[in-house]
Amino acid sequence: MSDLSLIIPVKNEAENLPLLYNAIKQALKPIKQKWEVVFVDDGSTDQSLDVLNALIKEDPQCIRVVVFRRNFGQTAAIAAGIDYAHGETIVLLDADLQNDPADIPRLLEKLDEGYDLVSGWRKDRKDNQITRTLPSKIANGVISWVTGVHLHDYGCTLKAYRRDVLGGFRLYGEMHRFIPVFAHSVGARITEIPVSHHPRKFGRANYGLERTSKVILDLFTVKFLLDYSHKPIRLFGGAGAGLMLLGAADLLFLFIRRTFFGVPAFSSPLLLIGVMFFIMGFQSILMGLIAELLARTYHESQRKPTYTVRTVLGKK
């Protein structure tokens, strides 16, 4: 059983992998914990898997490699790494050498201060300003504003976690960058420290500007799951009540105008708009009731608790 697991998604990083593993070994020399490295090959088409096999032969006690049948994406690779890791402390980092393994001891020291999650902040980022850095800053600001979990750099893979804050949710889409948000929802203590960031030496980035739009779309899902998954009627019912009020106000306006000013209601498009708003509002409330039934079925069928326990004190 390892105390520390490093999880590294890999896609076409053959030239970087030997340098990365040597840097990891140097960085973890002063660490007294038992450690392992879990590489997840995410459908590489270069020699990455051959390099990983060579590293296993070199250090079979410390390396585990999970090989996907095809490319499933970084989030799936991280989820698989967590599933196959044995450590009580989880550290994520990229395989492209832009994250510096030398920062790992600093993350672990911060965890020892009582935090559950320590996030890296690429304060001096070495990426293209237009296609990578600027969109990332915009996305970070939007995520912080929407979720209330304020981090400078959600996109930095280099983070350290206590395993117990990673339970209770599954990762898909681009959800890996929202792990701090999910962890915060179960009461995790979160902090952030500046980490080094280096220009890419070999290979090319697997993600570009299009990733920002995917992140923003996933943010809608995250917001719903966090705020309304337990009581969806508050979202659908609230929206429905608002639409019904608008429809009722519109119809009342038409009634007053017809009664006191003699203007026919059927001559105005406001009649159709008012009726449409009222029907849409009623349908939204019905959707909320159905969502309530689904949420109740989901929690009760899985016996999924509506709370999380940090620890139990006193007599066990």
Question: What structural keywords apply?
Answer:
316 residues, alpha/beta, Spore Coat Polysaccharide Biosynthesis Protein SpsA, Chain A, seven-stranded mixed beta sheet, 47% helix
Helix content: 40-55%
**Average pLDDT:** 85
Instruction: Give me the number of helical elements.
Output: 9
Instruction: Tell me the number of strands.
Output: 7
CATH level 4 superfamily of the largest domain: Spore Coat Polysaccharide Biosynthesis Protein SpsA, Chain A
Major sheet: 7 strands, mixed
Strand content: 5-15%
Shape verdict: elongated
CATH architecture of the largest domain: Alpha-Beta Complex
CATH class of the largest domain: Alpha Beta
Order of helices and strands: EHEHEHEHEHEHEHHH
**Spatial gap, N to C terminus:** 25 Å
User: How many domain modules?
Assistant: 2
- pLDDT < 50 runs, ≥5 residues: none
Strand order of the largest sheet: 3-2-1-4-6-5-7
CATH fold topology of the largest domain: Spore Coat Polysaccharide Biosynthesis Protein SpsA, Chain A
Write the topology of this structure.
Layout: E1 4-10, H1 17-28, E2 35-41, H2 48-58, E3 63-67, H3 74-84, E4 89-92, H4 104-112, E5 117-121, H5 129-147, E6 159-162, H6 179-185, E7 190-194, H7 210-227, H8 233-261, H9 270-301
Parallel strand pairs: 1-2, 1-4, 2-3, 5-7
Antiparallel strand pairs: 4-6, 5-6
Helix pairs in contact: 5-7, 8-9
Description:
The chain is built from 9 helices and 7 strands. The protein is α/β, with parallel strands linked by helices and 316 residues long. The protein folds into 2 domains: 4-226, Spore Coat Polysaccharide Biosynthesis Protein SpsA, Chain A (Alpha-Beta Complex), CATH 3.90.550; 233-301. A 7-stranded mixed beta sheet has the order 3-2-1-4-6-5-7, with helices on both faces. Helix 5 runs parallel beside helix 7 (210-227) and helix 8 (233-261) runs antiparallel to helix 9 (270-301). The radius of gyration is 25 Å and the shape is elongated. The mean pLDDT is 85.
